[in-house]
From TrEMBL:
SUPFAM superfamilies: S-adenosyl-L-methionine-dependent methyltransferases. It comes from the Bacteria. InterPro entries: SAM-dependent_MTases_sf, tRNA_(Gua-N-7)_MeTrfase_Trmb, tRNA_methyltr_TrmB_bact. CDD domains: AdoMet_MTases (cd02440). The gene is trmB. It catalyses: guanosine(46) in tRNA + S-adenosyl-L-methionine = N(7)-methylguanosine(46) in tRNA + S-adenosyl-L-homocysteine. One of its GO terms (molecular function) is tRNA (guanine(46)-N7)-methyltransferase activity. The keyword Cell inner membrane does not apply. This is tRNA (guanine-N(7)-)-methyltransferase. It is an enzyme of class 2 (transferase). Pathway: tRNA modification; N(7)-methylguanine-tRNA biosynthesis. Keywords: Methyltransferase, S-adenosyl-L-methionine, Transferase, tRNA processing. It comes from Thalassolituus maritimus.
Length: 236
């Protein structure tokens, strides 16, 4: 997928003009992933064409709503939904094998408090009403570690303010990364944003919350000496 920039705007995070925070990865669906899509998409799938959504209408109740952006293969999101049946979860993932995996796992776990989009988060966020989300989760996004690619990092001022619009007053934006440079970037961006406060105190990280599953990916990184940084910013 090509990325296009306007002349002079190369270093600005122009979400609406084509700079992507992700790359579409080729990959065939496994039998399980395809089965999950076939059986569960009609039940759990959300489409951009449906337009703006109302979470209480989607879930049939007015509960605590968690929006997770970029859930990968879905293991941790399904685990969180299963562990907190009193909450409602909306996932956003652009990679179809990940969506299929999530739906298959959700079916196996008997999870019903979960819905998902298979689209770009920037497009999905346009359909989320103001002040409707309690928690936004962004766990281990692509770090785009080369300096020339930092403009592709999803955590940018415009993105932070878009999330502030959809968060309820007192709602929390929770980020996690295993790249120290990206953690520093997240901190720098978020500390500069109006309308947010750092839950842990200025320029401080939070300990890993118990509700964020401890993944194999994270364990493998820690075994190699990699750190993990969690950041939480509250809408004020």
């Amino acid at each position: 997928m090509s990325d296009t920039n306007q002349v002079g705007d190369a270093d600005k995070p122009q979400y609406r003009r084509g700079i992507k925070s992700f790359v579409i990865r080729a990959g065939r669906l496994t039998k399980g992933q395809q089965g999950g899509l076939d059986r569960q998409w009609p039940i759990m799938g959300l489409e951009l064409e449906q337009g703006e959504i109302d979470p209480p209408t989607v879930f049939g109740r007015d509960g605590h709503v968690v929006l997770e952006i970029g859930y990968g293969m879905g293991q941790s999101l399904v685990q969180m939904a299963a562990a907190a049946p009193e909450k409602d979860f909306i996932g956003v993932e652009v990679h179809l094998p990940g969506v299929g995996s999530l739906l298959n796992l959700a079916e196996e776990a008997g999870v019903t408090n979960l819905r998902t989009y298979k689209d770009d988060a920037i497009e999905v966020l346009k359909l989320i009403p103001d002040n409707s989300i309690d928690t936004v989760q962004l766990f281990f996004p692509d770090p785009w570690h080369k300096k020339k690619h930092h403009k592709r990092r999803i955590v940018q001022p415009e993105f932070a303010q878009t999330l502030r619009r959809v968060l309820k007053p007192g709602g929390v934006f929770h980020m996690a990364t295993d790249w120290e440079n990206y953690a520093e970037h997240m901190m720098e961006v978020m500390e500069a944003q109006e309308g947010y406060e750092n839950v842990a105190g200025k320029n401080e990280y939070v300990p890993r919350p118990e509700h964020r599953p401890y993944t194999k990916f994270e364990k493998r990184g820690e075994n190699k000496g990699h750190g993990v940084w969690d950041l939480m910013f509250r809408k004020v």
